[in-house]
Amino acid sequence: MTPTLESKLTIADRISSISVSSTMKVMADADKLRREGVDVVDFSAGEPDFPTPDNVKQAAIRAINENYSKYTPAGGSVEARQAAVNRHKAEFGTDYKMSECIVSVGGKHILFNYTQALVNPGDEVIIPVPYWVTYKDIVNYAGGKCVFVDTDEQEGFRLTAAMIERNITPRTKIVLINSPSNPAGSVMDDAEFEKLYYITSKRGIFLLTDECYSHFLYDGRPYSVASIPGSKSTVLVAGTVSKTYAMTGWRIGYALAPEPIIGAMMKLQSHSTSNPTSIAQKAAIEALNGPQDSVPQMLAEYRRRRDFIVPRLRQMPGVECSMPSGAFYAYPNLRGALGRGGIRTPLEFADRLLKEAHVAVVPGEAFGTDAHVRISYATSMKEIERGLDRIHKFLETLG
Ligand SMILES: Cc1ncc(COP(=O)(O)O)c(C=O)c1O
Fold first, then answer.
1. CA distance 153 to 346
2. Among 346, 313, 318, which residue's Cα sits nearest to residue 330?
3. How far, in Å, from the CA of 124 to the mean position of ligand 1?
4. CB 288 within 8 A of CB 103
5. Which of 242, 288, 374 for mutating ligand 1's site (highest number of atoms within 8 Å of CB)?
6. Which of 49, 248, 256, 342 is disulfide-compatible with 237, CB 3.0–4.6 A?
7. What is the 3-state secondary structure (H, E, C) of the chain?
8. Dist. CA 212 → ligand 1 center (Å)
9. pTM for the full model?
């Protein structure tokens, strides 16, 4: 049958398998209100409020002045890839070669490239709940099937290897772990992570570790499962400079993985973004190679905020909150408040909170749970105090 003109003027089916990022939507709604002159307290942004360290900014300025403005190799410059490899080695004792590294346009792009390079239609990807919103969509976009694994809130959403093992099937292709996690700040014990590596590797399943928040850990030392000797063939590392160095807008991430996978991702990248921005690569090289003292400074400030915010949330009517062990999010449970004031769901709560109390939070539906909201404390103490006062008052008005 010849297609009609109207039936041709449509969006491709694969786009309908994904949804608009809820975090981006909340940020846009908050921004709209702000532009209308409303004083909004914004707890929605998943990005550090700190400026990019000065040495990093200066490296980018130098790159511009030195006309470092041409294409680089599609998978990133030799120096940028080497910097990612070296930083990982220095911190975790890994020994990746440059050919086992690609630099892309942020950690999200790395995860997208991984799923596009590895997931065939029907392949299963195991994702612990609560999960970062993007995982679901990039797996769906690749035609894969998300297999969600519940965690126990009473245990701080802490994941164990056994929880994953129960959900493995012959179709499992990837287990995707984010520790510390967005949105709950939960951390998998090193020993459990190691167990999970043995469970997955002996079955030929990739263990994809999203190390986005690995430096923001409140107890113990940062851990990478890639530090297990001989783990290179099934462990896939997704790294980013976005949060560690307060560089979200620069858009640089990196992958450490077996050469054929890096090659596949490079092929894809060469036909989509080409190289990540040359100037941003220079900045990332300085971030990765240069002084690291900004990282513990930021962590200390996040800890101070966490220690303030969680007890305050726990004092609010109908609210419970587990203590995050890493990252910079609190994930309070509002079950005791839902049902009041005509609010049934976190989505409705977030909507009313923004409209009536002018505080932006991300509803838990985005992360696969039905009673929570995510509060980012990557914002100043002053804003945190103002926002919490408003949330407290709002909850009280619900009766
Ligand atoms: C869990 C997680 N992974 C990866 C990313 C990607 O970060 P980026 O694309 O800015 O490097 C984010 C950003 O919010 C995140 O929360």
1. 17
2. 313
3. 22
4. no
5. 242
6. 256
7. CCCCHHHHCCCCHHHHCCCCCHHHHHHHHHHHHHHCCCCCEECCCCCCCCCCCHHHHHHHHHHHHCCCCCCCCCCCCHHHHHHHHHHHHHHHCCCCCHHHEEEECCHHHHHHHHHHHHCCCCCEEEEECCCCHHHHHHHHHCCCEEEEECCEHHHCCECCHHHHHCCCCCCEEEEEEECCCCCCCCCCCHHHHHHHHHHHHHCCCEEEEECCCCCCECCCCCCCHHHCCCCCCCEEEEEECCCCCCCHHHCCEEEECCHHHHHHHHHHHHHCCCCCCHHHHHHHHHHHHCCCCHHHHHHHHHHHHHHHHHHHHHCCCCCECCCCCECCEECCECCCCCCCCCCCCHHHHHHHHHHHHCEECEEHHHHCCCCEEEEECCCCHHHHHHHHHHHHHHHHHCC
8. 6
9. 0.96
Q: Which residue has the tokens 């195991």?
A: 126
Higher local confidence (pLDDT), 1 or 352? 352
- Give 223-275 pLDDT, tens digit per residue: 999 999 999 999 999 999 999 999 999 999 999 999 999 999 999 999 999 99
Q: In ligand 1, which atom is closest to the CA atom of 248? A: 10
What residues flank ligand 1, with Cβ below 6 Å?
46, 106-108, 132, 178, 182, 210, 212, 240, 242, 248, 253
Given a cut of 70, whether residue 202 has pLDDT beyond it is yes
Q: Whose CA is nearest to atom 2 of ligand 1?
A: 212
> What's the 7 CA to ligand 1 centre distance in angstroms?
37
Which of 161, 143, 160, 141 is CA-nearest to residue 152? 160
